[in-house]
Amino acid sequence: MKRCLDDVYPDAHCELDFTTPLELLVAVVLSAQTTDVRVNLVTPALFKRYRTAADYAGADRTELEEYLRSTGFYRAKANSVMGLGAALVERFDGEVPNKLEDLVTLPGVGRKTANVVLGNAFDVPGITVDTHFGRLVRRWGWTAEEDPVKVEHVVGELIPRKEWTMLSHRVIFHGRRVCHAKKPACGACPLARDCPSYGTGPTGFEEAAKLVKGVEKDHILAMAAPR
Questions:
Q1: Residue 112 annotated as catalytic
Q2: Kind plus residue range of the DSSP H or E element containing 78
Q3: 178 touches 1 (CB < 8 A)
Q4: Class of the 129-224 domain?
Q5: What is the rounded distance in angstroms from the CA atom of residue 194 to the CA atom of residue 179?
Q6: Which of 61, 82, 89, 185 has an alpha carbon 20 to 30 Å from 104's alpha carbon atom?
Q7: CA-to-CA distance for 188 and 20, rounded, in angstroms?
């Protein structure tokens, strides 16, 4: 299944736009309860206005909230990024740390966020257990664990460490494009042959094909088409 994911999504990547570790950290915090697409609409202006951890720490709350309003929960998110900025300035000289044990001490940063930052900003392998990742690995029978930390450790035992970051991207891509929560596109899934949950969604190719999303749709359908 892992090799199939490699073939289906060779170019999988973090779908949040960023150029620095700080930008990625802020973007991941803002992505809670909203889409990466929405965050990417907000961050160009945000990152132009707030360039350093000190900028966030010293931000005018009302102004910052306006930048974040369309992401939802904007007051809580303003609190989070201001707190992040302050913690980075106070404890890490304004720089984003590159160790998991340091990242998770920052306000609003859990293992999921830390692993996204490590894998994509610092090339430190990490498994990102978001809702898509957890749902899929349970559907596939890789683990029955519900707790994200336990899921991370179990899958980490199955897959070589150097593959962790790309595996995370590919599983998340598959969850967004094919293996949907309520109605997975089973009949148009390249992994169908090996999936113990095959049949959770429609199994007819034509019906399932309508459920596949993303710019990779034609590639996915070509790999899954009946032969």
A1: yes
A2: helix 74-92
A3: no
A4: mainly alpha
A5: 14
A6: 61
A7: 37
Report the alpha-carbon distance of residue 203 to residue 14 in Å, rounded: 30
**Against a cut of 0.85, is the pTM above it?**
yes
Tens-digit pLDDT string for the chain (227 aa): 999 999 999 999 999 999 999 999 999 999 999 999 999 999 999 999 999 999 999 999 999 999 999 999 999 999 999 999 999 999 999 999 999 999 999 988 999 999 999 999 999 999 999 999 999 999 999 999 999 999 999 999 999 999 999 999 999 999 999 999 999 999 999 999 999 999 999 999 999 999 999 999 999 999 999 98
Instruction: Examine the residue annotation and report whether 130 is marked as an active-site residue of this protein.
Output: yes
CATH class of the domain whose range is 21-122: mainly alpha
Which residue of the set 36, 55, 102, 130 is catalytic? 130
21-122 and 129-224 in the same fold: no
Q: Spell out the domain ranges in the chain.
A: 21-122, 129-224
Residues annotated in a binding site for [4Fe-4S] cluster: 179, 186, 189, 195
Please state the residue numbers annotated as binding site: 179, 186, 189, 195
Residue type, 202: P
The separation between the first and the last C-alpha atoms of the chain, rounded to the nearest angstrom, is 19
d(CA 227, CA 17): 38
